[in-house]
Write a structure and sequence with these properties.
alpha+beta, five-stranded antiparallel β-sheet, 172 residues, two-stranded antiparallel sheet, 20% strand
Amino acid sequence: VGAVTAVALASRFWGLGCPKIFHEVATHLVARHILITINLDFPENTRAAVENRMHEIQRKLCGRINRFAEFAKKYSECPTAMEGGKLGTLSKGQLYPELDRALFTMEEGTISDPLVSDIGMHLLYCEKIHPEKRLPFNQIANNIMETLRRQEQRRIQKSWLDDLKQSSVLDE
């Protein structure tokens, strides 16, 4: 397929409503957290003690959200504490389900209530929200053309294999 024809096909595919995977960037968030593990072997890490500590941290952070990273370094038991509790830029499905559900319903610049996961109790901070967006055709045209080329290649290979099967049946 020539370059002009490939671009025309990709443009037509785009115009007919190509699948979202080609043109949408999902919402992603920049987040931090504070983790305190629940461990019944240590009196300071029983569920009740951890819950009390988390509420105290949350209370201290009230109105001082700009100090979240500092609090994470001081109180978090997660290795991310070294970086101020930085979880980085996240898409849905990257965290424990209970944390994911909470984080993706938060507003930018807010702190969650204490949340429990398999590894302990967390406070989440939604630092920044990058909303879903649609990419323009010129940014995805090559991906569309490559996908259409692979589909056509598979169609041709299947046809060739079908012809081979048919001719071997006739030879018998």
